[in-house]
Specification:
Blueprint (H helix, E strand, L loop, with lengths): L8 H10 L4 H19 L2 E4 L1 H15 L12 E5 L26 H8 L3 E6 L33 H8 L6 E4 L6 H6 L3 E4 L20 E5 L2 H11 L17 H6 L7 E5 L9 H16 L3 E5 L4 H19 L1 H6 L6 H9 L5 H22 L5 E5 L8 H4 L7 H8 L5 H4 L4 E10 L2 E8 L5 H15 L9
Parallel strand pairs: 2-3, 7-8, 7-9
Antiparallel strand pairs: 1-3, 4-6, 5-6, 5-10, 9-11, 10-11
Length: 470
Amino acid sequence: MTALNELSLDDARKLVNNGDVTSLELVQACLKQIDKHDDRLNTFIRLESELAQTQAEEFDKNRKRQSEIGLLGGVPLAHKDMYYRAGLPTTCGSKIRRDYKSTTTSTAIERLAKSGALNLGGLNMAEFAFSPTGHNTHFGACRNPWNTDYVTGGSSSGSGSAVAARMAFGSLGSDTGGSIRLPAGFCGLVGIKPTQTRVSRYGVMGLSFSLDNVGPLTRTVKDNALILSVIAGHDPKDATSSTQPVGNYLEAVDNPSAKGLKIGIARGYFEDGADDTIIESRDAAVKSFTEQGASIVEIDCGDINHINSLAAFIAGTEAATLHAYWLRHRRDDYGPQVLARIESGLQFSGVDYLHAIQLRPKIITEFVKKAFADCDIILAPTFNIETPRIDETDVEDGQGFEALMSTVSHCTRPFNYLTLPSLSLPTPELANEMPASIQLIAPPFHEKLLYRVGSAYEKHTSFSERAPNL
């Protein structure tokens, strides 16, 4: 019999809805898994076991009196420790905010709660979400459940580890240069960076206002669509959130198909420096889509190096602006990696920054017009290197540090500048006995298309049936 914590989010919610399982039983199954493995994986910054069990008991009592329990009713999740909840701690993975308690609650968390989801606590993350490997000086390295010698990816490191290790049924991360897709990929999960503005960022720690995105990491495509269905949509508290209607994502995953679609493969940039095993897994995905009736076409994406540089420049400049006060008054409380990255943003002028921002609409328009002229979606690796070891990436601010950061996020960062939705999916093939991953990229607000095609790939390859052997 399948242990409760090993169920998909979708299966778990259905059991609760049918009255076959209680919310408390789901919470206790997750807590048992956490108790068994978290000392080794270092996934949680703060476990709220008593609060979660109390909420589950209350949910179960109300369940008996309600016919409608919400889309995620009774299912325990856990989130990157940067989502504010009124009266509760949110560390942002930092020493500076170790004891911070917000007076507000993020819109994404509020919407999950209204859908009936529970919260197990705050997950480990890169300090202030500023590392694609997940390195954290203050709370220690989060470990990959597939092999604890290897990185989880970052900055949503705890999200990747907790969901892959079956400690929670799903998690919210954030993505400024790949911080949802990278840990999803390195940990064998599904992760989406939605179209920028698709999900409200109110009550979420900011890193780079122009590039930040909110999205879920899950074990299956349908689980991912369930969470995004709850959190997507305009929020009056976030003036930047889009008023574009939210698609029916669940309809898309329940009707999977890639037949008749044109899938674009971009050479050059997305193959630069790539390990052979990564290209092999990408090519296996291409074969899978061909077998499903899709057409594969080669496309020209233009100068991606230029776009990548602009994204890195904006992220660094906006982060330095956001942290200016703490840099003056609490500089010694930063970890060396994060301090080096943030301070590098101080060297650029306001004129250069505004130029990079002003170029963006034109570059996005030209990219979408050119890249999608002959295809419906783009397929690329999520990362072009095999999963690095923790000891290989545990560098401070020495020589080679920036090159390492750039290498890890090479394939993901450009799509933050371009604002495009990107769905990261694990491949059934491993690379050096660790997960490999592809990403599907669509025009703005085409998340429904990504879920339809991603669900077809999942069905064809059965990637979600594979799990780390803890």
